[in-house]
Amino acid sequence: MAGLARWVHDVSVLNQDFVDRVANSKDSEIADSRRALARRVPTRWNSDFDCLDAHVFFKDTIQAMTGVRANKLTAYRLDDEQWELADEILEVLKV
Predict the structure, then answer these.
(1) Measured at the alpha carbon of residue 92, what is the angle toward residues 6 and 57, in degrees to the nearest 5?
(2) What does the pLDDT look like over 28-44, one tens digit per residue?
(3) Residue 10 lies in domain
């Protein structure tokens, strides 16, 4: 998840694709100020939670982006079991 966030932030074409997808998706209808994936920062203990939370929040957008071979993000595509695990870990980290 941290790797995907890094690629989306650092590669301008992917960043623009992400921004466009968020603007045109149902995610944008939710009253939330999030418009980007949070990045993991090794020196900040809570950045793992923020990165995971953003990934789960933008699940539909991320699945759409990682499903396009031209983006070269297929290595970051999560299966259903991994998404369930992400939800469980998120609940544990909230505490």
Answers:
(1) 45
(2) 555 467 788 999 898 98
(3) 2-27+35-94
Residues of the chain with pLDDT under 50: 31
Q: Where are the alpha helices (DSSP H) in the chain?
A: 2-10, 12-23, 47-57, 59-66, 80-94
Using alpha carbons, select from 17, 1, 7 the residue that is nearest to residue 54.
Answer: 1
Split into its structural domains, the chain has a count of 1
User: Would you state the pLDDT for residue 23?
Assistant: 84
Token pair belonging to 91? 């609940």
The pTM of the full predicted model, rounded to 2 decimals, is 0.83
**Residue linked to tokens 């983006």:** 71
